[in-house]
Amino acid sequence: MADEGGPFLQAALICERILTEADGTVSAIRIIDRFFITPNPGQPPAATMPAVVMSHTLFVTFKSGAVHGRLTAKLVFRGPSGLKLQEVSIPVLLEGDERGANLIIPYQIQVEEEGLYWFDVYLDDKLMTKVPFRVIYQATTFTTPPQL
User: Fold this and answer.
1) In whole angstroms, what is the distance from residue 45 CA to residue 58 CA?
2) pLDDT tens, 53-100?
3) Taking the domains of the chain in order of start, what are their residue ranges?
4) For the whole model, what pTM was predicted?
């Protein structure tokens, strides 16, 4: 957790996309925390989930508080076992007070198993929060209704 002077985490979420208005105001569209994977139409369901590439946006926003200067945000993507699958570092400039930084990170990640995944959000190696999302495989079978 950040100390009393900042910096502060204002939001961290997964969504379909972020809209940024001319005045800098942002809107998160379709906030997501569960992903349902289903077999492609016409294909029989597999017993286990096939590998799938997911494309969404991670939105993280910090507020400076008393902090001024350049910091590094680090995002660590972890699988259900806790294993680190991917990591990215992003420079952040904090200008103090209510000023902050919005990180809008479109991503594509391959998931290969069901379960609870996490994005760990760090600022200068200090864990600020964790953003969870669950992948659920729905192997459904469709049967032809009986003819009457």
Assistant:
1) 30
2) 999 999 999 999 999 999 999 999 999 999 999 999 999 999 989 999
3) 8-38+49-137
4) 0.84
